[in-house]
Recover the amino acids of this structure.
């Protein structure tokens, strides 16, 4: 099933690239969604089954389901976006082909049980993502694409250096098999010096995808300049793949003697990420960049939970799951607002309530959800992370991070309420488009789901998250 | 023999950090390709012959001939000026470089193995550092690319350290090498040359907060 899925996705991607017929294009996209749906069905039914070096464990299944929902919505929202952009047919084909290949590569990267296989699929996501960023073919998108490719290539090289250090460590221990399961079973044999070097390089490399401190810059430009539906995938699926890489490596390292050291690496990166996010959100001039910086803040919180261990790991995965629903909802709506106003600068937009009540509802509810105000599910996970910090005795750090979060809540609120209610002086509302409420339906559904997860989380989903979190605390 | 080659590779790093003309960078990159060829030949003794031949061919064809030639072609085609324009004086670069190498030697002591076992580690980490330093202190996009190529060479050296046990690693390194060079050099430098005439990073400053 894994090979069928991957090969067929590539074929669909290739067919989309050369296809000239509109009906055929819709058929290909629908067949891709059906293929992905059956893949999701397969991995949910056979969790833990493996094919070669691909294994769908519980963590992978969670991310695959999330990606299926978000990518289907992205393909749906792309139609309106592309129609508005009015590019020629060839560029649309590139866009859809890149999106299909990105989604297929992400799915396989989640499942990979071999660190080199993860690495290869992450490399493929870089290429596909760069085509999505370059879609509009302007100077600014070219700049963003160049920066994204350059930073991602350097970070993927860092991951490779880390893998080589792991290889040296395995050579001294007499191991040959580089799968995660074998490495976790034999973690006690690994040399601490080389393991530390491996972890620091692999972590630094994957931060480019995960949007964390050392390499976060590329992701910001990418989410800003890519079309909004693609930005939604970047803010959910692509961040999850970075988390996946860090998480699986951390699972190995926390079984060695370097466990405490690796925890402090995560803690430092998380704290600096939240600090940077709060600083940049204060002075940001553009809604999409604001959302991208908010993603950095959430990824910092996730890493905080991961480094705390215990219930923090569960909270981290829960947080990431809900963040992958709420952030795309805001990205889709920002795309619609961008279409209405023709601008995404904070100075030039406002009074969105007059144009679209449903869209404004998405912004306001999304704001409350993303800042973790109850009944948002993010409140539960943040509460659990902070409780774990309190129990572990990180009181000062907890106080600092709570203050930074307050700054973020204020800055996000200032910008979002301005977009919804305050009309700028020289905008003629009569000439602006009134988007159909139907377009906002999917976002409202995502937001309601996040709220539902905060109030009545269904037990099967929680079981999956518990099983995924158990990978870390398996000692 | 391998140690001698690695030490001469370390020496080329000092050359590249003091070099002024872009052509000198290309010559040093080609020289590094030859040194890597020799290092691979002597250190991968227990590898399968066909695989070894492939790796040796890659170092000569791609690293020594194709990439320097291709970058030179881009330099001519886009009329890029011939100076590297470092932002930091050469003397300070040299001091930083020397202290970094000394630091890496001390770091390799911390691993608990002797220096000559770890020469692969020391040289490759110094190479990666040099590449990052070139990227940080030069102004042109093309020099950034050369810094990246230097990092790639460092990765290749490190992959030689595990080459006999895990030949797949060396092949993957080559895959990364060829792939990244083609992607970044081929597609985007041509595009960037068309849109931004000078290939100067100062023109890529509009995306910021």
């Amino acid at each position: 099933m894994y090979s069928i899925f991957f090969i067929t996705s590539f074929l669909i991607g290739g067919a989309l690239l050369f296809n000239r017929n509109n009906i055929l294009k819709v058929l290909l996209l629908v067949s891709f969604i059906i293929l992905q749906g059956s893949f999701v069905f397969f991995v949910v039914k056979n969790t833990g089954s493996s094919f070669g070096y691909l294994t769908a464990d519980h963590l992978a299944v969670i991310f695959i389901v999330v990606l299926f929902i978000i990518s289907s919505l992205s393909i749906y929202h792309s139609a309106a976006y592309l129609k508005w952009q009015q590019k020629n047919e060839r560029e649309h084909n590139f866009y859809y082909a890149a999106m299909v290949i990105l989604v297929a590569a992400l799915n396989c990267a989640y499942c990979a049980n071999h660190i080199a296989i993860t690495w290869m699929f992450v490399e493929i996501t870089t290429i596909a993502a760069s085509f999505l960023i370059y879609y509009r073919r302007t100077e600014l998108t070219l700049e963003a694409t160049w920066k994204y490719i350059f930073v991602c290539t350097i970070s993927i090289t860092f991951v490779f250096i880390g893998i080589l250090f792991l290889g040296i460590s395995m050579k001294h221990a007499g191991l040959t098999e580089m799968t995660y399961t074998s490495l976790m079973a034999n973690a006690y044999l690994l040399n601490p010096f080389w393991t530390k070097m491996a972890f620091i390089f692999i972590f630094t490399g994957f931060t480019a995808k995960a949007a964390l401190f050392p390499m976060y810059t590329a992701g910001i430009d990418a989410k800003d300049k890519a079309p909004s539906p693609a930005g939604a995938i970047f803010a959910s699926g692509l961040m999850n793949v970075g988390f996946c890489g860090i998480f699986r490596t951390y699972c190995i390292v926390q079984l060695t003697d370097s466990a405490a050291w690796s925890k402090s690496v995560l803690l430092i990166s998380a704290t600096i990420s939240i600090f940077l996010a709060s600083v940049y959100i204060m002075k940001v001039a553009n809604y999409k960049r604001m959302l991208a910086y908010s993603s950095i803040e959430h990824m910092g919180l996730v890493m905080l939970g991961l480094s705390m261990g215990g219930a923090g790991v569960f909270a981290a995965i829960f947080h990431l799951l809900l963040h992958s629903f709420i952030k795309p909802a805001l990205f889709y709506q920002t795309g619609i607002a961008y279409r209405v106003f023709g601008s995404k600068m904070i100075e030039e937009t406002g009074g969105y309530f007059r144009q679209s009540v449903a869209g404004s509802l998405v912004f306001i509810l999304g704001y409350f959800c993303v800042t973790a105000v109850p009944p948002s599910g993010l409140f539960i996970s943040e509460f659990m992370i902070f409780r774990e910090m309190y129990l572990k005795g990180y009181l000062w750090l907890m106080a600092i991070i709570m203050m930074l979060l307050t700054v973020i809540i204020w800055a996000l609120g200032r910008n979002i309420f301005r977009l919804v209610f305050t009309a700028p002086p020289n905008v003629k509302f009569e000439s602006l488009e009134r988007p159909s409420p139907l377009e906002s339906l999917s976002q409202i559904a995502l937001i309601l789901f996040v709220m539902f997860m905060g109030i009545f989380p269904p037990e099967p989903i929680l079981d999956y998250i518990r099983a995924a979190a158990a990978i870390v605390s398996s000692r | 023999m391998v140690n001698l080659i690695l030490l001469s590779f370390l020496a080329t790093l000092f050359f590249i950090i003091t070099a002024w003309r872009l052509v000198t960078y290309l010559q040093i990159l080609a020289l590094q390709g030859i040194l890597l060829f020799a290092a691979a030949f002597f250190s991968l003794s227990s590898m399968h012959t066909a695989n070894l031949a492939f790796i040796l061919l890659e170092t000569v064809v791609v690293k020594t001939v194709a990439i320097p030639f291709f970058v030179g072609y881009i330099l001519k085609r886009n009329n890029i000026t011939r100076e590297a324009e470092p932002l930091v004086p050469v003397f300070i670069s040299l001091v930083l470089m020397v202290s970094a190498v000394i630091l890496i030697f001390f770091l390799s002591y911390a691993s608990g193995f002797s220096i000559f076992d770890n020469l692969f580690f020391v040289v490759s980490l110094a190479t990666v550092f040099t590449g990052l330093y070139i990227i940080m202190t030069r102004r042109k996009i093309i020099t950034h690319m050369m810094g990246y190529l230097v990092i790639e060479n460092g990765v290749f050296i490190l992959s030689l350290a595990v080459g006999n046990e895990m030949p797949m690693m060396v092949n993957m390194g080559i895959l990364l090498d060829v792939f990244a060079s083609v992607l970044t050099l081929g597609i985007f430098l041509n595009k960037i040359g068309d849109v931004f005439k000078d290939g100067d990073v100062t023109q890529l400053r509009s995306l910021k907060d």
Notes: The two ends of chain B are 52 Å apart (CA to CA). DSSP finds seven helices and no strands in chain B.
